[in-house]
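Q: Given only this backbone (279 positions), what sequence would you predict?
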């Protein structure tokens, strides 16, 4: 898939479709407030501080002009099953407590600037994770697989239906943002060094995800997901060994297969500190 995700939190995938799959994200005001108050407790933990909890999802599915869904209950269940598989190591699990169809077909070609407020004022359940599935999503002018809000932001995730299928970890990527994970290639906090010396304060703020120089996600699944990006050395002239296997990167979804222990722990931390009102 070749779709460029742009936006706050997005998912990624480069399987075999033909759109761009990236998401640029910027934290909103409330999210920055929340993140500034967040006290990380996950450094130095190589094990996952598992916490078993089932969180409730309210699913909203856009209908097309013929009132077809394209993405119905079996597809939804398959998407949640993939999500649960990806989150099982940390104990967080998700179940759909209610599914609602959105008949206004204009929303099915979702444009965040025009539609987000209109949709969410009508379709929203407080204190649950609200996930909206639409045929296409345009976020700030860019076609994306999805986007979400960080802790401190809204309890909402917007997903393209075609990116919410088994084998595609875009929904897990968005859920990662929803629980406070940054992209592995994040530079808002400074560029992470290969030797890990600034891993707590730069990059994705996670130490067991190697420094990642590549927001384009250049890796080749045909040759063992070898990194093929143009940037090979960091500021110390150390060779990058990017985390091509990580859900929070933009590497092809054929290559991504995991979160790291510290990513799980950061998500659990942020769940406990910033999103513990979810039921
Ligand atoms: Zn993202």
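A: Predicted residues:
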């Amino acid at each position: 898939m070749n779709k460029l995700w742009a936006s706050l939190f997005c998912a990624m995938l480069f399987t075999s479709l033909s759109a761009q799959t990236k998401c640029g994200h910027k934290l909103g005001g409330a999210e920055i407030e929340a993140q500034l108050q967040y006290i990380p407790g996950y450094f130095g933990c190589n094990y996952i501080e598992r916490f078993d909890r089932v969180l409730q999802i309210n699913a909203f599915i856009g209908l097309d002009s013929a009132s077809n869904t394209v993405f119905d209950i079996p597809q939804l269940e398959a998407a949640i099953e993939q999500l649960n598989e990806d989150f099982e190591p940390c104990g967080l699990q998700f179940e759909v407590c209610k599914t609602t169809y959105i008949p206004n077909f204009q929303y099915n070609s979702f444009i965040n600037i025009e539609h987000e407020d209109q949709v969410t004022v009508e379709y929203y359940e407080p204190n649950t994770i609200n996930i909206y599935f639409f045929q296409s999503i345009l976020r700030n002018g860019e076609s994306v697989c999805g986007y979400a809000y960080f802790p401190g932001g809204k309890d909402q995730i917007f997903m393209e239906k075609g990116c919410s299928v088994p084998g595609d970890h875009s929904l897990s990527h968005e859920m990662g943002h929803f629980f406070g994970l940054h992209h592995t290639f994040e530079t808002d906090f400074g560029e992470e060094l290969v030797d890990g010396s600034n891993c707590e304060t730069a990059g994705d703020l996670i130490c067991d995800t190697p420094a990642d120089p590549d927001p384009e996600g250049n890796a080749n699944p045909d040759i063992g997901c070898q990194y093929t990006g143009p940037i090979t050395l960091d500021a110390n002239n150390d060779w990058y060994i990017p985390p091509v296997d990580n859900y929070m990167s933009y590497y092809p979804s054929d290559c991504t297969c995991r979160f790291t222990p510290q990513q799980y722990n950061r998500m659990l931390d942020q769940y406990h500190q910033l999103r513990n009102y979810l039921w």
